[in-house]
Amino acid sequence: MTSGISSAFVVLLTTAFFNLFLPSVPNKNTASTYHDQTQCKSDSGVYSLALSPDDNYVAAQWGADTAKLWDRKSGQLLHTFSVELDPDLSQVIFSPDSKRILTGSSNYAVLWDIRTGAKLQTFPPAGSNIEDYVRTYVAFTPDSKYVFTGGNKGATKWDAQTGAKVNVFPGTLANTGDQHIQISANGKYLLTHSDRWELWDIKTAHRLFSFPRTNTDVKNHWFLDESASFSPDSKLVLINARVGFSVWRTDNYQRVAVLDTEEAIRYWYFSPNSRYLATFSFNGGPLQETALWDLSTNQKLHVFHPGHNLVGPFAFTPDSKALWIGTDIDKDAEETTQIGVWDIAESKMSTIFILDQFGVEGESPFTHDGKYWLTTDAPGRLQMRETETAKRVTLYC
Questions:
Q1: What is the model's pTM?
Q2: Under 8 Å between Cβ of 376 and 10
Q3: Contact 204, 166 (CB under 8 A)
Q4: Domain 16-396 classified CATH 2.60.40.1640?
Q5: Domain positions in the chain
Q6: Residues 167, 205: contact at Cβ < 8 Å?
Q7: Which among 365, 359, 311, 336 is positioned nearest to 45, based on CA atoms?
Q8: Given the DSSP bridges, would you call strands 348-355 and 334-343 parallel, antiparallel or unpaired?
Q9: What is the pLDDT of residues 144-177, one digit of tens each?
Q10: Which residues contact 130 (CB under 8 A, 6 or more apart)?
Q11: Are the C-beta atoms of residues 396 and 58 closer than 8 Å to each other?
Q12: Of 7, 184, 223, 236, which sits 20 to 30 A from 34 (CA to CA)?
């Protein structure tokens, strides 16, 4: 699952949608009591949730200047990674070989050893003056050999073992001050963003294509191309310009679709097989909806309760057969969250879970076998739950 926005988003809805439209769906209440839950939360928020590729570790941003690493099964805290001298974390990611963690913050990216917790390398973003930097975005190549950092002067490729600079992918200062970067799953392409999105050949550092800017004066407000990502199969690039999603091919740089044209703030997730796209659109007015798209036809398959109530997607199952959507509810003065599991082939809600937590913050990754999923709630508690029952099995403190 791939998301286009890094900040967390709490989605809200009443229970009327499920009660009115889906009366026959099994309802599973998973509420349970845990001791000292107040000790297992971050008052400053838990963001950038990550599962290691081997499913053995959990990592997350814990407040503004700290990342933490836990053993996935036992919940034991293994290491705390502090960036106190640069307290503006933006990303926490695992290397594909599950041996290292990379953190990105205001002025630097830091590579950490998972086994020892030691700091291995420090990488500055691309730029000439430290005062220019706003946020450093980071990425690994699929072979774990190289690290990419993005600052507001471009992107840089580094040797992860030696820390040596390999290539520079120049950019210009973005209006947002940030240089978002994305690496395709096949390791061939790099996406960078300064004043527009650009596609690069990772090996040669050759600029392949500059995507035309689609900012439009909507009600006298200018919106830049906000965010973008590759599909999991590396064949597509999706660009969100707030006034529409545009879909491009990576092999011939042709635009193949425009999904929606309304002014809205959006985030989205690709299904693992790259066939489906789940989008959330919200403009503070009447346009508030979650939609499921079939990218093989560019058709909208389903809209989940459009109108003034919100429904938010947060994960596809690893087999791409179901979409999980969430809603916060306040039932009988008890704050809980309702999760709907949408069966894509059957086009129906197959299960509804009632969780003893309030909020589903951001994307919730599944383990590779699909048996567990990682989530955090609005109070800042990070937890692992069973997929079949939604029962909480581990609380990470």
A1: 0.82
A2: no
A3: no
A4: no
A5: 16-396
A6: yes
A7: 359
A8: antiparallel
A9: 999 998 866 678 899 999 999 999 888 755 444 4
A10: 107, 124
A11: yes
A12: 7
